[in-house]
TrEMBL record, chain A:
It comes from the Bacteria. It is found in: Cell membrane. Keywords: Cell membrane, Membrane, Transmembrane, Transmembrane helix, Transport. Residues 119-310 form the ABC transmembrane type-1 domain. It comes from Nocardioides glacieisoli. One of its GO terms (biological process) is transmembrane transport. This is ABC transporter permease. Its main location: membrane. InterPro entries: BP-dependent_transpt_permease, MetI-like, MetI-like_sf, OppC_N. It is a multi-pass membrane protein. Belongs to the binding-protein-dependent transport system permease family. The lineage of its organism: Bacteria, Bacillati, Actinomycetota, Actinomycetes, Propionibacteriales. The chain crosses the membrane at residues 50-72, 123-151, 158-178, 184-202, 241-264, 292-313.
Automatic annotation (TrEMBL), chain B:
It comes from the Bacteria. It comes from Nocardioides glacieisoli. This is ATP-binding cassette domain-containing protein. Residues 357-376 are annotated as: Disordered. The keyword Transport applies. Belongs to the ABC transporter superfamily. InterPro entries: AAA+_ATPase, ABC_transp_ATP-bind, ABC_transporter-like_ATP-bd, ABC_transporter-like_CS, Oligopep_ABC_C, P-loop_NTPase. Keywords: ATP-binding, Nucleotide-binding, Transport. Residues 12-264 form the ABC transporter domain. NCBIfam families: oligo_HPY. One of its GO terms (biological process) is peptide transport. GO terms for molecular function: ATP binding; ATP hydrolysis activity.
Automatic annotation (TrEMBL), chain C:
The keyword Cell membrane applies. It comes from the Bacteria. One of its GO terms (molecular function) is ATP binding. Its main location: membrane. InterPro entries: AAA+_ATPase, ABC_Ni/Peptide_Import, ABC_transporter-like_ATP-bd, ABC_transporter-like_CS, Oligopep_ABC_C, P-loop_NTPase. One of its GO terms (biological process) is peptide transport. This is ABC transporter ATP-binding protein. It is a peripheral membrane protein. Signal peptide: none annotated. It comes from Nocardioides glacieisoli.
Length: 323, 376, 340
C-alpha cells in the first residue's frame, strides 16, 4: 500500500499558482460562526487590520490623485518650461528649483507634474486590464463551472497551460505581436495574463458552490438549472474573484510599467507614464538617479498598496491562514 | 414489485440501490483507480405515513442513500419506485417536476440556506419552480400558512438567514421543504447541529407536521436515541448496506445483529443508574474504508461474535429469522443471528486492526496531504 | 429560603484537598463597538485528585472559555480575566506566561474537540509525542521513542511502532483523538482538561474513548475536568457535575443526586428534552422553549427567566444567589422538587 506523504515531485510554478487560486476559491463558501457568513466576519476583521487599512489608504490616495491630477498639476505635462536650462553635456537634467519641486526631465518638462499625471495612465491600464481580464475570466470560468463535463475539461486545460507561463513573459509575447504598440495592446496583453487566473478561480468557486448544501437544496426543490446558476451559484462565487481582482490590479500595474519600460507601451512619449519615465531615466542613471527613483518609488508604493489590501482580504477570507 | 393483498401501502420501494463514487487520480488525464462504495446494495420500503429511521456511523453512506433516493445523487444501479414511478431513471424536466412530491431537509441549517436571499424569496423559489405562485394573494396566504406551520412569526419573511438562531433556521429549512406540498420528506440529520433543548423543539415540530399533513419521513441520523424516538421502523446501516431492519421498539428489545447491539450499548443514557449497570460492548478499531470493504460480512473485522466459517467469505443477506420476540418484519443480515440470540455463540475479544493508511475520515473522501502547509 | 438538598452521595466531599480550586472566575470579552460580554460570569468549582468533574451546558454557555482561561490559552487581547484558579497552591491566573507554559503539558494537559486541528499536520505522530517528553522531562529523542510507542499502545492504538511514523491525516478521527490523549498523558499530568473530546466522534468510538478516559482516571489518579454538552456522557463518567447557563454555574451536584433529584428548572428542562434510548416511542418530548438569544442579563434577573416554566416575580428583578456549597447547590428562586 502506498504510504508516502508529501509531493513526489517538486511543485512547478503552475502548480503553485493553481494551488493558491484553488485555496482562495473554496474560501468563500465556508461559514464561519453561526449567524455570520464568512464574508461578513472577514469584513469585521479587516476593519481592524492595520495592514488592510494602510493598503486601503495608499490605494485611496492614489486613485484620488490620479483622478484630479490634471487640475492640480502645477505645469502642463507637455510643456517644457525648463528647456533653456537643459545642457546635454553639462546639465542634461535640470535639478529642483522654486516652482519645480523635483526639477525637470531631459526635455525640460516639470517632473513633479509628469509624475502626478503619470498616475492616470497607470491607473487606466491597471483598471482596464483587470476589468478585461475579469470579463474574459468570468465568462470562461462560469462556462466551465456551470456546464461542466467536456466544456470544463477543454477550458481548464487551456487555462492551466496559460498559467504555467510566467505572466510577464506571456504579456511580453502578446504585446510584441502587435504591429504598433499602444496603450490598448498593453491592456490586452496584460488582460490576457489575468484571464486564466480569474477563470480558474471562478470555476473552482462555482464548483464549491455547486456541491454546497444550499445549491443542493435548490436542486431538490426543483428549481430550474438556469436559475440555480444565476441566482445561487454565481452571486455566491464572486467573493473570491473580487479579492483576486484587487491583487490583480497590483500585478497589472507592475506589468504595465515593465512593458512600458521595455518600450511596448504608449508610443506617444509626450504623455507621461511611470514605466516609460523609468525607461527614459536609464540614460542618466549615474548623473541623475532621482529621475529613475521617483517613478520607481511610485510604482512600488502603489503596487504595495493594492497588494497589502488584496493580501489582507485574501487572508481574512481564507480560514486556514488565521487562528 | 411484490403485490400481495394485505401488503401495507408502500410509498417508496428501493431495490438493490448502489451508489459508487469513482476515485480519480492522474496528472494530466484523470483515471478511475477505484470506487468508494458509499451505498452498496440496499433494499428497503417506506410505507405511506410512517417514519423510517436510518442510523449508522459517520461515513456508512446514510446521507448518500438519502440523496440517492431523491435522485440528488444519481444512483449507479438499482431502482427507487415512488408511488409507481421509478425516480432513479427520471431525468431533466421530468425529474424536476417530480421533485414537487419529495423534498429534503438538511443537516446544517446555515449552509443549506442561501445567505443572499430573504426567507420570502427562499420560500417563493419552490412555488415558482412548480408554477404554484400564479395568484399573488393566494401566494401570500400560503407563505403565512407556512410560517405559522413551522412556528415562526410572519415578520421573519423579510429577514435574511443569518439573522436567525440555529433552531429557527432549521424551521425555515423545513418550511422550504413543505412549500411545494410534498408527500415524502427526507431529513438528513435534521437535529444534530442543534443544541439539546432546541433539538427537542424541532423533533416535536416534525412530529406535529406529520400528524397535520400526513407526511412520510425518512429520517437519517447518527443518534440512535433520536431515531428511536421519532421512527416507526428503523434500518441500521453499516458500510453501505443495511444490516438490520425492524420496528423501533422491537429493535431496542431484541437487537439481533452484533453491530446493532454494539451501537445500542454505546449510546450514553442520561441516567447514572443505567450507566453503571448496563453491559457495554466495546468495538475495537474503526469503520473500514468503503473504498476497500472487507470480504464476506462487512462487519467481520470488528465483530465480537465472528466465526471461523462463512463470516469472512460469504456476504450475509437480510433475512427474517426465527427468534422469540422477533416479528416477521424484523430482518437481519448475519449468518449466525439465531445462535447469537440463543447464546449458543459467545462474545469474544477482537484484535484491533488499523484501517487503510490514508483513511481521511468519513467526509474527507480520498485525501491528499494537507495543502495548507505547502508554501506558495 | 430552602436549604440546598443534601444529596446522599456527596462526591469526594472532604476526601482530600482540592487539586484545582477555581473561584469566581470571570472572563469578559470586549469587542470594539460592542458592549462588554461576560462569557464566564463568576464560576467556582473544585477538582480533587482522582475525581472527574463535568461542566455541561449548551453551546455558548462558556465551557470552553472557562477551560481556556484556566490553561492561560485565551487570545491575549480583547478579554479580561479575574478571579482565581489555585492549582497546587499557585494561582494559575497570575503565573507568568513562561511559568504557565512549563505547567502546561507537564502538570496540566488539555484535549480538544477537534483532534485534527490540534495536531500539527506536517510532523509525524511519534515526533509530536516525543517532543512533549523532550521538553518537559529532558529526555533525548532516543529515550523518548520507546516510551512514545508504549503510550500509543496504552491508549489503544494498534501497531504503535508503525503508527509513530504516520502523519495525522493518515489516521482516522478516533485514532487521532487517541494520539492526542497519548500526548496529553506523556508527562503524567495531574490534571487533565478534556473539552468535548468525543463530540466529533461516532458513538462506538466515543464509547471506546470514554472507557479509556475512565480507566486512566482510575489507574493514575489523574483529576479530570470533562467538558461536554451530552448529559449521557456526564451520567456515565463524572463524579460531580456543574451545569452552566449563560456563563454561571446554575446547579451542581453529585452524579446520582443531580440526575435523581435535579433542582434547577434548566437542568430539569435539559433532562426532559433528551430523547432516551430506553424510553418508549411516541411520548412527546418537553423541550425548553425559546433559545439562549432570549436570555436576560444576569445583573438584574435570572438569565433563564424568559425560558423558565417556574419563573416567579423576583426572577426578573434580582440575581438569584448560589444556595449550597462547593459540593451541591443551585442558583434559583423557585427550584423544583427537593423534598427528599
Ligand atoms: N461526492 C462524493 N465523492 C466521493 N466520495 C463521497 C462523496 N460523497 C460521499 N462520499 C463517500 O461516501 C461515503 C459515505 O458518505 P455519506 O456522506 O453518505 O456518509 P454518512 O453516513 O452520511 O456520514 P455522516 O454521518 O458523516 O454524514 C463516505 O466514505 C464518503 O467519503
Ligand atoms: N475570543 C473570543 N472573543 C469574543 N467572544 C468570545 C471569544 N471566545 C468565545 N467567545 C464567546 O464566549 C461565549 C462562550 O463561548 P464558549 O466557547 O466557552 O462556549 P462553549 O460553552 O464552549 O460552547 P460550545 O459548546 O459551542 O463549544 C460565546 O458566546 C462566544 O461567542
Ligand atoms: S455474519 Fe459473522 S461477522 Fe457478520 S455479524 Fe454475523 S457473526 Fe458477525
Ligand atoms: S430563578 Fe426563577 S427564572 Fe431562574 S431558573 Fe429559578 S425559577 Fe426559573
Ligand atoms: Mg451524512
Ligand atoms: Mg466549546
Amino acid at each position: 500500500m502506498d504510504d508516502n506523504t508529501g509531493p513526489s515531485r517538486r511543485p512547478t510554478l503552475g502548480d503553485r499558482r493553481k494551488e493558491r487560486i484553488d485555496a482562495l476559491a473554496t474560501a468563500g463558501t465556508v461559514v464561519d460562526e453561526p449567524g455570520k457568513s464568512l464574508l461578513r466576519s472577514a469584513w469585521e476583521r479587516l476593519r481592524r487590520d492595520p495592514v488592510f487599512l494602510v493598503g486601503a489608504a495608499i490605494t485611496l490616495v492614489f486613485v484620488v490623485l490620479a483622478i484630479i491630477s490634471p487640475w492640480i498639476a502645477p505645469w502642463d505635462v507637455t510643456a517644457n518650461p525648463l528647456i533653456d536650462k537643459v545642457r546635454p553635456q553639462s546639465n542634461p537634467v535640470p535639478g529642483p528649483e522654486p516652482g519645480h519641486l523635483l526639477g525637470a526631465d531631459d526635455r525640460g518638462r516639470d517632473l513633479f507634474s509628469r509624475l502626478l499625471v503619470g498616475s492616470r495612465q497607470t491607473l487606466v491600464v491597471g483598471v482596464f486590464a483587470t476589468l478585461l481580464g475579469l470579463l474574459g475570466g468570468i465568462t470562461l470560468g462560469a462556462l466551465a463551472g456551470a456546464i461542466g463535463g467536456f466544456v470544463d475539461t477543454v477550458v481548464m486545460r487551456i487555462v492551466d497551460v496559460m498559467l504555467s507561463f510566467p505572466a510577464l513573459l506571456l504579456a511580453f509575447t502578446i504585446a510584441s505581436l502587435a504591429r504598433e504598440p499602444s496603450q490598448w495592446t498593453l491592456i490586452i496583453a496584460i488582460a490576457t495574463t489575468q484571464v486564466p487566473i480569474f477563470a480558474r478561480l471562478l470555476r473552482g468557486s462555482m464548483l464549491a458552490q455547486r456541491s454546497s448544501d444550499h445549491v443542493l437544496a435548490a436542486r431538490s426543490l426543483g428549481v430550474r438549472p438556469r436559475a440555480i446558476v444565476f441566482r445561487h451559484m454565481l452571486p455566491n462565487a464572486m467573493g473570491p474573484v473580487i479579492v483576486q481582482a484587487t491583487l490583480s490590479l497590483a500585478t497589472a500595474i507592475i506589468e504595465a510599467a515593465a512593458l512600458s519600460f521595455l518600450g511596448l507601451g504608449n508610443p506617444d512619449q509626450r504623455q507621461p507614464e511611470w514605466g516609460q519615465m523609468l525607461g527614459l531615466a536609464q540614460r542618466y542613471i549615474s548623473e541623475a538617479p532621482h529621475l529613475a527613483f521617483y517613478p520607481a518609488g511610485c510604482i512600488i508604493v502603489v503596487a504595495l498598496g493594492f497588494t497589502l489590501m488584496g493580501e489582507s482580504l485574501r487572508e481574512a477570507l481564507d480560514p486556514k491562514s488565521r487562528r | 414489485m411484490t403485490q400481495t393483498s394485505d401488503a401495507p401501502d408502500v410509498l417508496v420501494e428501493v431495490t438493490d440501490l448502489e451508489v459508487y463514487f469513482p476515485i480519480k487520480s492522474g496528472i494530466i488525464f484523470d483515471r478511475t483507480v477505484g470506487h468508494v462504495r458509499a451505498v452498496d446494495g440496499v433494499d428497503l420500503s417506506i410505507r405511506r405515513g410512517e417514519t423510517y429511521g436510518l442510523v449508522g456511523e459517520s461515513g456508512c453512506g446514510k446521507s448518500t442513500l438519502g440523496k440517492a433516493i431523491l435522485n440528488l445523487e444519481p444512483p449507479t444501479a438499482g431502482s427507487v419506485v415512488f408511488d409507481g414511478t421509478d425516480i432513479a431513471s427520471l431525468k431533466g424536466e421530468d425529474l424536476r417536476h417530480a421533485r414537487k412530491r419529495f423534498q429534503m431537509v438538511f443537516q446544517d441549517p446555515m449552509s443549506s440556506l442561501d445567505p443572499r436571499q430573504t426567507v420570502e424569496s427562499l420560500l417563493l423559489e419552490g412555488l415558482r419552480a412548480h408554477g404554484l405562485d400564479t395568484d399573488t394573494d393566494a401566494t401570500r396566504a400560503r407563505l403565512r400558512e407556512l410560517m405559522s406551520d413551522v412556528g415562526l412569526p410572519v415578520a421573519a419573511l423579510s429577514k435574511y438567514p443569518h439573522e436567525f438562531s440555529g433552531g429557527q433556521r432549521q424551521r425555515i429549512g423545513i418550511a422550504r421543504a413543505l412549500s411545494v406540498g410534498p408527500d415524502l420528506i427526507v431529513a438528513d440529520e435534521p437535529v444534530s447541529a442543534l443544541d439539546v433543548s432546541i433539538q427537542a423543539q424541532v423533533i416535536n415540530l416534525l412530529q406535529d407536521l406529520q400528524d397535520k399533513l400526513g407526511l412520510t419521513y425518512l429520517v437519517v441520523a447518527h443518534d440512535l436515541a433520536v431515531v428511536r424516538h421519532i421512527s416507526d421502523r428503523i434500518g441500521v446501516m453499516y458500510l453501505g448496506a443495511l444490516v438490520e431492519e425492524s420496528g423501533g421498539a422491537e429493535l431496542y428489545d431484541v437487537p439481533l445483529h452484533p453491530y446493532t447491539r454494539a451501537l445500542m450499548s454505546a449510546v450514553p443514557v442520561p441516567d447514572p443508574q443505567v450507566e453503571d449497570t448496563r453491559e457495554q460492548i466495546l468495538l475495537t478499531g474503526d469503520l473500514p474504508s468503503p473504498a476497500n470493504p472487507p470480504s464476506g460480512c462487512r462487519f467481520h473485522t470488528r465483530c465480537p461474535w465472528k466465526q471461523e466459517t462463512l463470516c469472512d467469505t460469504e456476504r450475509p443477506q437480510l433475512r427474517v429469522v426465527e427468534v422469540s420476540g422477533a416479528s416477521d418484519s424484523h430482518r437481519v443480515a448475519c449468518h449466525f443471528a439465531e445462535k447469537i440470540a440463543s447464546g449458543e455463540i459467545q462474545r469474544h475479544e477482537v484484535e484491533a486492526t488499523i484501517t487503510t493508511p490514508g483513511f481521511g475520515g468519513p467526509d474527507a473522501g480520498p485525501t491528499a496531504p494537507p495543502e495548507a502547509y505547502i508554501g506558495v | 429560603m430552602t436549604q440546598a438538598t443534601q444529596h446522599s452521595s456527596r462526591p469526594g466531599a472532604g476526601s482530600s484537598e482540592p487539586l484545582l480550586s477555581v473561584r469566581d472566575l470571570r472572563v469578559t470579552f470586549q469587542r470594539q463597538g460592542e458592549e462588554e460580554f461576560h462569557a464566564v460570569d463568576g464560576v467556582s468549582f473544585d477538582v480533587r485528585p482522582g475525581q472527574t468533574v463535568g461542566l455541561v451546558g449548551e453551546s455558548g454557555c462558556g465551557k470552553s472559555v472557562t477551560s481556556l482561561a484556566i490553561m492561560g490559552l485565551l487570545p491575549g487581547r480583547g478579554n479580561r480575566v479575574s478571579g482565581s484558579a489555585i492549582f497546587d497552591g499557585e494561582d494559575l491566573l497570575t503565573l507568568s506566561p513562561s511559568a504557565m507554559r512549563d505547567r502546561r503539558g507537564s502538570e496540566i494537559a488539555m484535549i480538544f474537540q477537534d483532534p485534527l486541528s490540534s495536531l500539527n499536520p506536517v510532523i509525524s505522530i511519534g515526533r509530536q509525542v516525543t517532543e512533549v517528553m523532550e521538553r518537559h522531562q529532558g529526555l533525548s529523542r532516543k529515550q523518548a521513542t520507546p516510551k512514545a510507542a508504549d503510550l500509543l499502545e496504552r491508549v489503544g492504538i494498534p501497531d504503535p511502532k508503525a503508527r509513530l511514523l504516520n502523519y495525522p491525516h493518515q489516521l482516522s478521527g478516533g485514532m487521532r483523538q487517541r494520539a492526542l490523549i497519548a500526548m496529553a498523558l506523556a508527562c503524567n499530568p495531574r490534571l487533565l482538561i478534556a473539552d468535548e473530546p468525543t463530540t466529533a466522534l461516532d458513538v462506538t468510538i466515543q464509547a471506546q474513548i470514554l472507557a479509556l478516559l475512565k480507566e486512566l482516571v482510575v489507574d493514575t489518579g489523574t483529576a479530570l475536568v470533562m467538558i461536554t454538552h451530552d448529559l449521557g456522557v456526564v451520567a456515565g463518567l463524572c463524579d460531580e457535575v456543574n451545569v452552566l447557563y449563560g456563563g454561571k454555574v446554575v446547579e451542581r451536584g453529585g452524579r446520582h443526586g443531580l440526575f435523581r433529584d435535579p433542582r434547577h428548572p434548566y437542568t430539569v428542562g435539559l433532562l426532559n428534552s433528551i430523547p432516551r434510548l430506553d424510553a418508549a416511542r411516541g411520548d412527546k418530548l418537553s423541550p425548553v422553549p425559546g433559545s439562549v438569544a432570549d436570555n436576560l442579563p444576569w445583573t438584574a434577573a435570572c438569565a433563564f427567566a424568559p425560558r423558565c416554566s417556574n419563573a416567579i416575580d423576583p426572577c426578573t428583578a434580582e440575581t438569584p444567589q448560589w444556595e449550597g456549597d462547593q459540593v451541591v447547590g443551585f442558583r434559583c428562586f423557585n427550584p423544583m422538587g427537593g423534598t427528599r
